[in-house]
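User: Working on a comparison across species. This one is Amino acid permease from Stenotrophomonas chelatiphaga. Can you predict its structure so I can line it up against the others?
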Amino acid sequence: MSLLRRKSLDTVTVHEAGRQLVRTLSWPHLIALGIGAIVGTGIYTLIGVGANLAGPAVLISFAIAGAVCACAALSYAELATMMPASGSAYTYSYTALGEIFAWVVGWSLILEYSLVVSTVAVGWSGYFVGFLEWVNSQMGIDIRLPLALSAGPHVEGGVFNLPAVLITWLVAGGLMLGTKESATLNAVLVVLKLIALGVFIAVALPAFDSANLQPFMPYGFAKSLGPDGLERGVMAAAAIIFFAFYGFDAIATAAEETKNPGRDLSIGIIGSMVGCTIVYMLVALAAVGAMSYAVFGSSAEPLALIMRQLGHPTAALIIGVVAIVALPTVLLAFMFGQSRVFFVMGRDGMLPRRLSNVSKRTGTPVATTLFSALLVSALAGVARLDEIAALANAGTLAAFTAVGVCLVVMRRREPDRARTFRTPLAWIVGPAAALGCVYLFFSLPHSTQLYFLIWNVIGLAVYFLYSRRNAVLGR
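Assistant: Here's the predicted structure for Amino acid permease from Stenotrophomonas chelatiphaga:
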């Protein structure tokens, strides 16, 4: 039964000296962290990918992905305030379901965070290269990067995506300086990012043309294989667009660094989710209404492209520049989350214990941040955006499924335990989050499902060869 040994709910927040994080964050930092994570590549770049898969019905894809994420967010809010420790879904699974489930979830979170940061870095690189091209065309300053250094090997002529790697290390450096300092900078950049999306909505909505919504659902609702070999349909797009909504789970990883977790975590998780859903639906409506999805569906910078096609080069420049400046907030939030998952798994002995060392000067886990940066920069240098986004979704869907199950299990096992935030209709919300995520998982491309299976086979090998016998709980 050692595979199902569980952490005690009474001691889940008790940690040994030298392996504790410093409480420096309040709810405004958490909302900014959540919005910074959620509003990013998903809306700036993947709206084009989603429209290419579902046509104008990408609006339905956004609604479905948002509804599933809302159930997951409510589940997270209750569990995070009940167990205010780092590790998010990994920690909840360790307490509610047992060690083997926690390992699979933690291993999936490593996949999620690594690939999200890589995806965002590649998306940021696309905007950065587009900005350099604009500077060259408008100002005659030839500062373009050669294709060999601005794209991975999946692009003909590409070798290594240098901008994606550089921005990854720049953000990692900021995180190592201190949690509160990086969170404050993140809040400022989040405001800029929301202003840019507001500019897009204000300019694109007046150009709305209902003719652009016809045919509304050209590829059908369920996932189906198109003549070009792509799996299309509303649900295929929803499974990819799901990437655009998650990010609130990064807030849960900050539980151990929150001053008043009982109050602030629920505010941060739910507040960021609600705000982002409203913004997303407005941006998606403005995009597909202003221009045919066939025009912007394959663009690396769809929002900026729409602005240029509508004859608003200044607005396009603003969106492009803000994307360059503010998209790193997503990198910051997810690299923050990844380093904290590594940190907790190291503290539990599931990974090498040295990963849980905390810097005495900054109060941050420097070793895990460096390791995270090394891992994701290697991926970002050679990765293809749509493929790694789909695989990142697989890891997230696994974690969100576990959180929905954990909510129900803890309601059953600890019905009288004090809960600062209680999820309404928990017996509906929890199963809806779990079942919705399972359905979205099977809407992902078959190749993605296979890669995810391979990843977890490797993970289980690591668990049985190393983690099971080194786990602190086992000692």
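For your comparison, note: The CA atoms of residues 448 and 454 lie 10 Å apart.

User: Helpful, thanks.
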